[in-house]
Amino acid sequence: MNLGKQKNSSKVGTPPGELIYTGKLEPSKAIINVVSYDQHTYNIRENVDPDFLKTLDKNKIHWIDFENVSDPDKLTSIGEIFNIHKLTMEDIINVNQRTKIEFYDSYTFLVLKIISDSNEKLEFRQFSMIIKENILISFSEEKNFATKWLKTQLESNAGDIRNKDLGYLTFSLMDIVVDSYFSKLSNYISYTQEIDEKITEDIEEELFIKIKKIKQEILRFRRFVAPLKDILFQMQKKEKGIVNEKNQIYFNDLYDHTIRISESIDLLRENLNNLTEIYLSIASNRLNEIMRILTIISTIFIPLTFIAGIYGMNFENMPELHWRFGYFLILGIMATIAVIMIIIFKKKKWF
Amino acid sequence: MNLGKQKNSSKVGTPPGELIYTGKLEPSKAIINVVSYDQHTYNIRENVDPDFLKTLDKNKIHWIDFENVSDPDKLTSIGEIFNIHKLTMEDIINVNQRTKIEFYDSYTFLVLKIISDSNEKLEFRQFSMIIKENILISFSEEKNFATKWLKTQLESNAGDIRNKDLGYLTFSLMDIVVDSYFSKLSNYISYTQEIDEKITEDIEEELFIKIKKIKQEILRFRRFVAPLKDILFQMQKKEKGIVNEKNQIYFNDLYDHTIRISESIDLLRENLNNLTEIYLSIASNRLNEIMRILTIISTIFIPLTFIAGIYGMNFENMPELHWRFGYFLILGIMATIAVIMIIIFKKKKWF
Amino acid sequence: MNLGKQKNSSKVGTPPGELIYTGKLEPSKAIINVVSYDQHTYNIRENVDPDFLKTLDKNKIHWIDFENVSDPDKLTSIGEIFNIHKLTMEDIINVNQRTKIEFYDSYTFLVLKIISDSNEKLEFRQFSMIIKENILISFSEEKNFATKWLKTQLESNAGDIRNKDLGYLTFSLMDIVVDSYFSKLSNYISYTQEIDEKITEDIEEELFIKIKKIKQEILRFRRFVAPLKDILFQMQKKEKGIVNEKNQIYFNDLYDHTIRISESIDLLRENLNNLTEIYLSIASNRLNEIMRILTIISTIFIPLTFIAGIYGMNFENMPELHWRFGYFLILGIMATIAVIMIIIFKKKKWF
Amino acid sequence: MNLGKQKNSSKVGTPPGELIYTGKLEPSKAIINVVSYDQHTYNIRENVDPDFLKTLDKNKIHWIDFENVSDPDKLTSIGEIFNIHKLTMEDIINVNQRTKIEFYDSYTFLVLKIISDSNEKLEFRQFSMIIKENILISFSEEKNFATKWLKTQLESNAGDIRNKDLGYLTFSLMDIVVDSYFSKLSNYISYTQEIDEKITEDIEEELFIKIKKIKQEILRFRRFVAPLKDILFQMQKKEKGIVNEKNQIYFNDLYDHTIRISESIDLLRENLNNLTEIYLSIASNRLNEIMRILTIISTIFIPLTFIAGIYGMNFENMPELHWRFGYFLILGIMATIAVIMIIIFKKKKWF
Amino acid sequence: MNLGKQKNSSKVGTPPGELIYTGKLEPSKAIINVVSYDQHTYNIRENVDPDFLKTLDKNKIHWIDFENVSDPDKLTSIGEIFNIHKLTMEDIINVNQRTKIEFYDSYTFLVLKIISDSNEKLEFRQFSMIIKENILISFSEEKNFATKWLKTQLESNAGDIRNKDLGYLTFSLMDIVVDSYFSKLSNYISYTQEIDEKITEDIEEELFIKIKKIKQEILRFRRFVAPLKDILFQMQKKEKGIVNEKNQIYFNDLYDHTIRISESIDLLRENLNNLTEIYLSIASNRLNEIMRILTIISTIFIPLTFIAGIYGMNFENMPELHWRFGYFLILGIMATIAVIMIIIFKKKKWF
Q1: Better-predicted residue by pLDDT, A143 or E3
Q2: In terms of domains, do D156 and D20 share one?
Q3: Where does this chain mainly localize (chains A, B, C, D, E) (predicted)?
Q4: How many domains does chain E have?
């Protein structure tokens, strides 16, 4: 169970606005890449100095890819250059934010959670964006598939992306993140289906714990997906924001995807609950069957043993002992009793 | 458990708008049929070429029945002829959409789920419609009962359908889909009633799993039915759309049906939960009864066996052994003990 | 478990508007009775011909009591005379409608569910009304207590009913239906109280199944009661409808009753759930107690039997066997062991 | 379980407005007391005749305390004098009303539930009020703490009550009722705490049933408390009603109390659910521990008894029997087996 | 389980507005400290006389820190000096209030709950504030971390606090309280994670009770956190109140924190429920495994013991007894039976 580390308790009492990285990664130097383009030109500059960002051409679209938010110095520089409020800066480096959007006078601030691809376990990294005039700044905790993919898209001008506006660029980043949710979720779904298929054969305690673990991960998942719907709704309501008439259809599509994810999560949860109940019922049935059979065996032999005990007694005067076929008679009686008991139990459908 | 295949993970990272079929059927050539009619004329043209669709008479109502959406080429042709947005085209061929309606400037796009009649198991196929001016285009994954039925209706002019407008045609298709939900659901209901009737007699693990399986299918069902209510509400709100004064009463009726289906689903779920509890309780009762009886049998014989054991001991000096009727006395004592125990257990209502 | 028969699967594919009776009763000839009154006059005509209805006086209030909706011919006549939409007619004869109200231009259509008094089991019959100008038409599946009661009321002018308007007449019918819910519900409540009182004494499987059956019936009940609140709300909102200033207070009272019924149903459900848990807990406690006692008995005798077994061995050299009081010593030891075990178990509060 | 007696089934079919007492108390003669005051004067008249009420001074505030609503005659007199609608009168004497408020043109009608102090068990009595111009009429089923307290308050002019308006008088009565809820609820809370503290020591079936009983009483409690919030909200919304600028702060305080009660009830329910689970878990753990220990004892002795049985056999040729120390060897082997089994069970942490 | 002591039952019947301390601490003398500052000056006066507060400079910001609300005399003085309504005063000293905000004409009243740092167990103390013009008065039940921290902040002018307005001062106090919730909650989270990690190894009853206890504390927690969201929303809506354009961003941040806390609480609850189920399942699995093994051991030996019993019988004519290798034959048969049973049980996967 991982609830996301909470705001560090050592942070209690520090004045708001201080930049302390709260993520799980080793802090490392930030890398700033800038992709600039318009319909005619395209160029990428890697690992630039923050000061370079002061000279960006107002007529092009710029995507500033800020990697490793654990570097407070470069982050501060960026904040000063683009006039970002210190509380926003704090939210970027304190990576325990909720999925959320905030509209400031001069910029929009968006926080997403991206699935870490550097790790087997399900881990989320914070992925935040600032959209300001002709500039999109993305902040990531580490190298990730989303920015890598966007760079390829821009370079190859896939989907005519370079002829579209900043809103479409924002959409592209959000879309790749949501798509990755789909693919992770479909893993859980197919894994659940596997469990569902083998649950009637193979009842082990591990299976139960696996079901529960998936459920816990699904809960975390939902936590990051649930606010997306509201965020997209707010983005559309804002008058002259990122969403406009031309790209609205794409955001609608994205909205549709988030609803599908939410529904799949809900359905998956109900199915996991169902599986839990099936598991518990089968497990208890299996055990009960064993206990029943064993108890029946004992019950058949106990009266017989008693009879044997009778004739093992050492009384002087026990006439049966001297009968010629007493022994065989008793054996016969015992067999008869056993058979009768078995017939009764069979009739009562006890086994 | 089948949650509907999710957006293919291999699709992550492709630009939006690419046409890839994601359904479970074998891709096959599309077939396009056109039914054209007004109050006086009626004709049907089967397996036409997409180009034919450019020449449709503006004064008649046309229903274009597009079968096998797995054919991206013909789909693209259709999309170009009727000027459909590429995201809509993607939603038609990517058959994992939710039940939904989308209003575009020049057309309305509607996605339903139709129960496949080519399969024993409950499977849903996507059934989408585009309504544009005097034309209704329906897209199906395979031949299905809904389009077959509509063709018969139109040919025989049942319910005076040829004298009514495009909205009524749309209603007819939606209505036959919803009616098929009713009939499927009533199967589940009567099946559940059967289980309900025999649950007190026949307690088997399979019964429990059947109950759970029905519940899972019901959950999938609900997922496709739930949005219908909202869709019909939106259709009525739209100013000059498919629903108008003349046919509103039919859509109201349809709305009423969807509510009844939702209610039946909810009631069915509660009943299935009830059955689950009854099953578990009866199953545990049965077992408990068996164990109790068996334990009582053991408990009666164990003290008797002990007594027999006593007189099986080989001590030299055991006076009772030499008593004349020692053996019969002990047998009598044993019988007495057994009877007393049985009386006590009976009094305590232990069996 | 009875979920109400669903729209007949054989109806799938028939055009809307066809009149097929879907109830459980044997179809029979319809009977039409007309009660006409104003402040000064009152007369009742039984079993009239539909054509008679064309001649009704516009200045009186008329209540047309249509019995046995399973007669499509007379129903069609009525529909034509009063110009009722064919979908409304279908809803009258297809008796699987929800409790609902529909406002048409020239009339209001109301569907209630009435408890059948011809049957021991809880069964609901559809009871629909059309209110049009000065006429109230009620449609019932069979003779029932509600129309019988209303006739008596009108004849005796109880509560000055003949001096009041059509709205009050409508209220009277709705009120008697809701009152019958109260009385049925109070049966369930007192039955549940009985179970509650004897549950600690008498734990039988049947009790559990009874609790569950009541819960299922309550679920059906709720389904028909729940929409009433909304219906009454809609009736009041309608500008110049059935509810007016003079009779509003009565409809408010009715509204209050429906809320009380809903609350009682909710409370009853929670109590039934509570009883389920109590039942399961007591049942398992009872069994556990039995098993514990029996196991304790076995546990005490098993070591003693072992000791007896020891001295039943036939070794040549077993010195104890030759001791003079060996036998009595061993008996003493056995008694001591038994007493010690009993003391230990008592101390551990095992019995 | 007590759900409050429902509207008497014998009442089904009576016209609305008939005055029949439906409470549990013995009907008895009504007593009418009148307290009249303004800033300067104060007097109380006990057991007055209804006719006296026609002469009340318009310039004073009057509180009419009507005790024993089971007296339909005096109730009718009151209704006529103050022109109360007969449905209101019915709600006063039919004491199964919900907690509610109704605004009539000339008066406001308020129904509360008061905890009976004449009974050990939790019973609620209906306590209704009519507020009309300068008069507050309270109707109670029997003598109760609320009216007794208010009389004392007025007599001693505690809290300067005689200088305040009719709204404050109403508030005072509602406040004492809500306060009594607090005190009853705190009983339940401390009782639950007691159970919580001793639950780990003392596991008895009665404890479980007690928890369930409290939960049932809490459910009834909530039913009467829940509507209070809404009632207070409606009282404030009404333009020129009981609540005005001067006393609004008191009603706000009352509103706050009702929310606190609701929250406490919810918290209490969750805690009771928690306790149920803890109880069931501990109870099953206790039993399991006993069964485990007993089974271990049996399991150790059964193989030993078998060995003893071997050497109790009477075969002629059993060499071990003739060994000199055969007996002691076997005893040693038995001891060894027992010790080994104990060690194994210990290692597996079975006891 | 601690639900917070309820309004004392001895308070029932006292007129509203009386000052009685209802907390758990020993009443003690109140201490009043005043911190006054503007951009240029700063001074703190400790343990001042209430009368001093009449002379406060209107142009500075004053924070009056009132410690130990259990002192009704000084509280009354404060109330009179600042013209606080007696119901507000009552809410300050009756420390069982909900987390709430109330807007009065001349001041705003805010009630928070602060975690007591003088105690190991989770206990909440009431922490209320009155904001009036340029003055913030905080009332605490005892010395606490929040006021201590604020004093340090003001003294060191951390975060430029002395140059900001009264709203920011209010925010600072609320923020430190919410931060302390975070840190307490993260304790619960890490504690839950510990349990989660060791639950598969170490199944003890205590573990279960611990899980339940955490859940109960979480429930109490939520009760105090839940209303915060609404409070912050109301503070923003108020036209010219504490929140203004300059400090709104800080309150937004605080709002964000409260949502994160709520979400964490919800997630934690679901995880605790999950753990409960895992615990119960593992515990029952462990026991079942033990019982199964033990029962298998018994079942194997019981038939063998029966055979031994047979040949322990003392019949005269038992031919097997005289066979030369009868004994060894029987031993062999017994071994064979045992081996066959073990093989069967193994094959059925019973152990």
Answers
A1: A143
A2: yes
A3: membrane
A4: 2
Instruction: Give me the residue from D1, D17, D321 closest to C314, CB to CB.
Output: D321
Distance from CA of D155 to the nearest CA of C (A): 38
The DSSP result for E166-234, as a single string, is HHHHHHHHHHHHHHHHHHHHHHHHHHHHHHHHHTTT---HHHHHHHHHHHHHHHHHHHHHHHHHHHHHH
Domain ends where: D143, D161, D179? D161
**E173, part of any domain:** no
Q: Please give the pLDDT value at position C183.
A: 87
CA E97 to chain CA centroid, Å, is: 17
CB within 8 Å of D156: residues ≥ 6 apart: none
Instruction: Write down the mean pLDDT value for chain D.
Output: 88
Please indicate, yes or no, if residue C150 is contained in any of the structural domains: yes
- SS3 letters across C82-93: HCCCHHHHHHHH
Give which of D130, D102, D145, D122 is closest to D224, Cα–Cα. D122
Residues D128-151 have a mean pLDDT of: 93
Interval D44-71: pLDDT, tens: 999 999 999 999 998 999 999 999 999 9
Rounded to an integer, what distance in angstroms lies between the CA atom of residue A309 and that of residue D32? Answer: 87
Residue-range definition of the domain harbouring residue C342:
287-348
Residues of C in Cβ contact (< 8 Å) with D1: 192-193, 196, 271, 274-275
Please tell me which of the candidates A3, A209, A304 has its beta carbon nearest to residue E267. A3
- For chain E, count helices (H), then strands (E): 8, 7
CATH number at residue D317: 1.20.58.340
Mean pLDDT for chain B overall = 88
- What's the alpha-carbon Rg for chain B, to the nearest Å? 35
Give the mutation candidate from E12, E92, E105, E113 for the D interface (greatest D CB count, under 10 A). Answer: E12
Check pLDDT > 70 for residue D279. Answer: yes
Strand residue runs (E) in B57-196:
61-67, 100-103, 108-115, 124-132, 135-140
Residue D17's pLDDT band, with cuts at 50, 70 and 90, is: low
Instruction: Report yes or no on E300 lying in a domain.
Output: yes
- pLDDT band at residue C23 under the 50/70/90 scheme: confident
Q: Choose the mutation target among A88, A289, A294 for the interface with E, i.e. most E CBs under 10 Å.
A: A294
Residues B18 and B157 in one domain: yes
Alpha carbon of B25: minimum distance to chain C alpha carbons (Å) = 26
Both E18 and E153 in one domain: the answer is: yes
Out of A135, A161, A187, a domain closes at: A161
- Token readout for A110 is 């968006």
The ipTM of this complex is 0.77
pTM: 0.81
Q: Which chains touch E (3 or more CB pairs under 8 A)?
A: A, D
**Measured torsion, CA atoms of residues B9, B11, B14, B19, in degrees rounded to the nearest 10:** -170
Give, as one character, the DSSP assignment of residue B265.
H
Contacts of B13 in chain A (CB under 8 A): 149, 176, 179
Q: What is the CATH number of the domain that holds E57?
A: 3.30.460.20
d(Cα B190, Cα B201) in Å, to the nearest integer? 18
Q: Residues C233-254: what's their mean pLDDT?
A: 85
The per-residue pLDDT for A16 is 58
* Residue A154 within a domain: yes
pLDDT digits (tens, 9 = 90+) for A117-139: 776 778 899 999 999 989 999 99
- Which residue would you say has higher pLDDT here, C240 or B22? B22
Question: B4 is written with which tokens?
Answer: 């509907």
- For range A275-300, the mean pLDDT: 87
Per-residue pLDDT at A4: 40
Task: Identify the DSSP state of A53.
Answer: G
Closest partner CB to C13 (pick from B176, B264, B275): B176
Q: Are residues C189 and D312, on separate chains, in Cβ contact within 8 Å? A: no
d(CA B65, CA B149): 12
